[in-house]
Amino acid sequence: MEITLTINDRTFKADVEPRLLLVHFIRENACLTGTHIGCETTTCGACTILLDGKAVKSCTLLAVQARGKRLTTVEGLMKNGRLHPIQEAFWEEHGLQCGYCTPGMIMAAYHLLQENPNPSDEQIRRGLEGNLCRCTGYQNIVKAIQSAAAKLA
Amino acid sequence: MADAVAVTSQIRKRKSVGQPLPQIDSAEKVKGLTQYLQDLSVPGMLYGAIVRSAIPHGLIREIDTSRAERLSGVRAVITARDCPGVLFGPQEPQDWEILCRNKVRYIGDEVAAVAAISPDVAKEAAALVRVEYQELPAVYDPFEALKPGAPVLWEQHPDNVAYRFHIERGDLEAGFARADDVFEHDFYTGRFYHGQMEPMGCIVQYHADGGYTIWTPTHLPFRSRMTYSKGLGVSMDKIRIVVPPFGGSFGMKYELNINCIAALLSKKSRRPVKIFFEREEDIGAGHPRMGLHFHYRLGVTRDGRFVAKEARVVGTGGARTFWTPPVLSTACYRIDSLYHFQNVRTEGFLVYTNQSPATCFRGFGNAEALTALETFIDEIGERTGIDPVELRRMNGVKAGDVSLHGWRIASCGLRECLDRAESVSGFRNRKPPPKIPPRRGVVRGIGLAAGHHISGNRIIINEYDGASAQVRLGFDGQVAVIVGEPDIGQGMNTVFAQIAAEVLDVDPASVRSLPIDTLVSPHGVGTLGSRGTTVAGRAVQLAAEDARTKLVSLAAELLGVPPQEIRLQSGSAVVASGGGSLSMAELGREYATRYGGAFLIGHGHFTPPTEIPDATKYGNLSTSYVFGTHVAEVEVDTETGATRVVRYWALHDSGTIINPSTATGQVHGGVAQGIASALLEEVLVKDGRVTNPNFLDYRIPGFQDIPEMYVEFVETKDPYGPFGAKSIGESSLNPTAAAVCNAIYNAVGVRVHQTPVTPERLWKLLETARTEARKKE
């Protein structure tokens, strides 16, 4: 099927099989490998991206479902060569170790902070419960999101 | 060496060591630009898929690969006929085959493999391979497997014992004779999956000269090369291993047969082959932490001294041997270097069963043994009326002690950790547990447990213990650290950069730690046994000191002053009395210009004061020893048995902390995994089949399962590691499960003897206790 979609302000046109998963389109057709696959069952959140501004897990969406939509992946957050404040906060607050879940965490945090610019600890923990991390025990991810909220305020 | 540490810190205040710096590779990670194995491809690359046994135990009658071979897009199909046919493996007994020859021994055993132009075609082709079996009776429970007449997995091991451990020191009978009380305790720690976010995988390319290049994240690039070289029947130098960044491991990615399978697929197809697991394969056919049964008998005097300990430890190894023999031995006797038991005898059995082979997990058997022991000490404290913290103080090792098996404890902050844990957590003022578990409502309880670990281990490879490093400066001014130990995601490269930066007084953010490639990196024992910072880090420090000497002499010559006039300061070599300086970039360029482009290289190597244990297993095993104490506060819903950890305190002696940020991060992650092992996670196996092979049914903790934590380091002075640093990677997790179990007891007055403490298991214990109490009324 013919699809056209926008990823990080770039337009992609492709003829894809209807069964192609969106995450595979992002990784293989658009060559953006920051979006990782961790579980294939919508549980770990490593593949979280923004679809028309909303955080979604791209491993259980089909590429054709994103037809005509605007997507943002972790690679699309930097502006003018500068890290986005959320990226900066994850770096500064040591909100990661191996980094495999990090792009998904950052995209989920992006959506959370748009909805709620000043979240409490509790709200961060609830808002990101769909994203799993095995390295950090979540402590510094919560701190990083608080720090990002302060930077964005 | 101790002097060097003291002198360095006296010369000037530390600028880099002790700073909470972000990981040096974090910027790439937050941008999404880090290239993990999943992101890598090699031109012409095919995708591999494995045909796995569908039955738990049986003889292979026939393998029909013809339909798979005919499928369009398939480039190679291999079976045991394509394998060299030797038994090999990372540990004794060596029982790996690459692909099964005559027999399958677990659901998931590797029978055949295919390589095809896409993962989908490979999967489809694998499903087309038909295997006929003659089924044999299977055995899953290790105690059943040990009985005479049980199904036998390996003819060479008719008793199903893969490995037997025995240690004896002192006079056990005399010890028990001195005891005023003898207590017994049983504990079982369940099969627990690593849950690393990046599944296992590799890319292997066969070369026309008969060699292979393997891209795979592995803790052990050099040691695994030895294993694969035997399995593939080529010399070690023909195997090159390149280590991409890790997406987590925690012990899973040591040495894996998929590397050999991909190698043979590549050899047959003459194309590079990638195997990358989906989560279901990673859990279902992966290699979890093994289930361990502990039985302890402990003799205690009236005043609380431990005088005799007898133990039996049984491990459910699965069908083949990965890193389970050393895990079993660790589970058997490492605790003897935490407390003085005076007289001990321990028997351990690693048992073959028809399940996926287990392997090591962060904590390496010691976390499991401490879960059993520290819940036992809590109970002994209650039954003797002696404060359990006092029992630990009284029997715990001290700096300067030599343990029963000859382990030399140069520094020990156990008592400081216990003291601080009691005072920051309020553990001392805890209320007693209820006599009968309440019928309704949510109750709170608090529990404490101690733990310890090694920092390096003499017997990972036979040839040597230690590490070497180079710190080099190039024409471009780049300072680089070169070691043989990969960063496994925990931030070790950052720690190495900080150590080198401290010695050279340069900005640590400007230092690079180079990736590991067996073709160019120095030989390394590996990143395991909590040895990275202590052993490899010490080599980095020595290499940087050598580089400093060379830099100073070069600068002295160029600036026309004696070397003692030169100081390295903020990225430059300066004349102490004023009158000239040279930047690192200038020095690097000058050196390269003089010597045909050469790097200025500082060499360092460190051989720790360890010994190969003798025939009785006596000998100092590790460079240094670390200690910790954890306190958990839990809430138990007495109606459902559901338990939540609501507050947490972790106190650690890891010597000097090189990077408080990464060290604290290690504790956070270790505690989260410890809580998971205590309450949430178990690989469930029914009739040999894993019934929860995905993240929906095998739930690792999320944001709401892990409480906020208090972390504090009690710094002791250790003479061996860099700047006195010891380890944290594994000790961070070791006391956690016991602290949680002890907190459950404090909350509801019921002792648990098995992890994970699922709501169902705890509810049954609560109901039994309540029913018995009712009967007494």
Compute the number of structural domains of chain A.
Answer: 2
**What is the architecture of one domain in chain B at the second tier of CATH?**
2-Layer Sandwich
Under the CATH scheme, which architecture of the largest domain in chain A would be assigned? Roll
Give the count of helical stretches of chain B: 19
Distance between the termini of chain B: 68 Å
Sheet with most strands of chain A: 5 strands, mixed
Structural class of the secondary elements of chain B?
Answer: alpha+beta
First-residue to last-residue Cα separation of chain A: 43 Å
Q: Could you give a quick summary of the protein structure above?
A:
The complex is a heterodimer of chains A (153) and B (777). Chain A contains 5 helices and 5 strands, in the order E-E-H-E-E-E-H-H-H-H.
What are the salient characteristics of this protein?
heterodimer; A: alpha+beta; Ubiquitin-like (UB roll); DNA polymerase, domain 1; 2 domains; five-stranded mixed beta sheet; 5 helices; 5 strands; B: 777 residues; alpha+beta; Aldehyde Oxidoreductase, domain 4; seven-stranded mixed beta sheet; six-stranded mixed beta sheet; 29% helix
